[in-house]
Design brief:
This is Glycosylphophatidylinositol anchor phosphoethanolamine transferase. By secondary structure, the protein is mainly alpha-helical. The chain is built from eight helices and no strands. The longest helix is centred in the first third of the chain and has 27 residues. It is globular, with a radius of gyration of 26 Å. About 5% of the residues have low confidence.
């Protein structure tokens, strides 16, 4: 029978006991660590004003674009420059009346409480003036980045600079300002948005529709039709407005809550 060192045996027993004691603790810690909540679709405020405005604002945008379209064909720079403040005001009113600001209780994804855990009281809600200012600044700062993206996709690099920049500004105000208002600078939320992994809602649907519409709007420009409305960037602006309105309506109705991961 082989000899067993009592010191070695006692050390092994102590290590085994310590490992068994640590196992339940590690399992308990894993259970206590909550999983990161998934990005939830943005819900329109349940107030009567918000429910009415969610339908009224798209109709107002469509009416403004229809009225200004002849001016857009005649002088794109002047038309986009004079229309942009009105569009920005409509989008700002839409955000204030209809959308939950980043940091509000309705904008945060809900998490199931653990047994014995109490729901924490809110911190008083978001600071709306700061949220609006930051959203407007981010929308302004991202416009040059959109200009670079337009050039990479074939826009004139050194000519029609004002045309392209104003088209990008319109696109940013339409599609990105509402997203900045509801998501702020949340990296996880923007990662889902840019990777097409966000759930559909009005803000995400408008974003997808606006960018896809602008891309499709470039198709008629090189065609040999010799039409005045084919000049840069009339059809792109028409596509972004039409796509934004269609995506926003679909995202808030039949596609709401679909997708996401």
């Amino acid at each position: 029978m082989p000899l067993v060192d009592p010191v070695t045996m006692s050390s092994s027993i102590v290590k085994s006991a310590a490992a068994q004691a640590a196992a339940p603790q590690s399992q308990a810690k894993e259970k206590e660590t909550p999983a990161a909540p998934a990005l939830q679709p943005v819900q329109i405020k349940p107030t009567p004003a918000a429910q009415a405005a969610r339908h009224g604002f798209p109709a107002l945008l469509a009416a403004i674009f229809a009225v200004r379209f002849p001016a857009l064909v005649d002088d794109p720079v002047s038309a986009m420059l004079t229309t942009l403040p009105a569009v920005a005001a409509i989008q700002l009113a839409y955000a204030l009346v209809c959308l939950p600001a980043v940091g509000s209780s309705s904008a945060k994804p809900s998490r199931k409480l653990r047994p014995g855990e109490k729901k924490k009281s809110g911190d008083g809600g978001p600071n709306l003036p700061v949220t609006i200012l930051v959203s407007l600044l981010l929308t302004t700062f991202i416009t040059p980045a959109l200009y670079v993206a337009f050039v990479c996709f074939g826009a004139p690099a050194y000519t029609y600079v004002s045309h392209t920049m104003l088209a990008c500004a319109n696109l940013a105000v339409l599609t990105l300002f509402p997203l900045f208002y509801v998501h702020g600078v949340d990296g996880a939320a923007w990662s889902a948005v840019f990777s097409a992994g966000a759930p559909w809602d009005e803000t995400y649907g408008g974003y997808i529709g606006g960018f896809v519409g602008a891309w499709l709007g470039a198709v008629p420009i090189p065609l040999d039709w010799d039409r005045e409305w084919q000049k840069w960037p009339v059809t792109i602006v028409a596509g972004m407005y039409g796509g934004y309105l269609l995506g926003r309506v679909l995202g808030g109705t039949v596609l709401w809550g679909k997708g996401g991961r």
